[in-house]
Amino acid sequence: MINDWDNIEIFTENQSTLTETSYDDGNSEYMTELKVPVIDFDNVKEQYLQRIGCQDESLTSVDALLSKAHCNVFIEFKNGSLAKKEVRLGIYSKIQDSLLMLCDITDNHISQLRQCLDFILVYNEEKNPSKSNKSKDYINDRIMELGGKELVRFGISRYDGVYFRKVHTYNVEKFEEYISKLK
Questions:
Q1: pLDDT of 44 above 90
Q2: Would you say residue 42 lies in a domain?
Q3: Is residue 112 part of a domain?
Q4: Rounded mean pLDDT of 2-9?
Q5: Which letter does DSSP use for residue 165 in this model?
Q6: For residue 51, what are the contacts with CB-CB under 8 A and spacing of at least 6?
Q7: pLDDT per residue over 119-176, tens digit each?
Q8: Is 4 among the domain residues?
Q9: Which structural domain range is residue 161 located in?
Q10: Which residue in 82, 88, 107, 134 has its CB near the most CB atoms, within 10 A?
């Protein structure tokens, strides 16, 4: 069953929090202080590859999997700039590698996961400023919100409806607001 992931051993062995999975080694800082329980998907990847005997270190994964009865979300934290194409391609690779691992671990097809799995890229707004000013961004966000849509940045929208039910790009503040609504 898609939402019955609580009993999957590799997930129960890799429990963590949003705080821990948001840690940026390069800057020695956490992107969020939220203590919400999640699955550390980087650790899941390592354990998964070990179990299948794969030595390929080029395979990548998203940071976390939030799994609740009504909501499953892959979460990737990016504290640096997303301006370079190579960085964005790395995120796309993490999405694809993680999806394939999740399909194998949960014995689901992408078409099944698409019904219950979302993706969120959490980015550092200071390191990824919008090309317009804050007032214009606010107006654009409100217009899209009134139209029942959400602005998805960094080319991630390509996966909306293809691999995921919904795709989001949030700065830390909007991400924490999103998480607070899940409780």
A1: yes
A2: yes
A3: yes
A4: 79
A5: S
A6: 10
A7: 999 999 999 887 655 666 677 767 777 777 788 999 999 999 999 999 999 999 999 9
A8: no
A9: 9-182
A10: 82
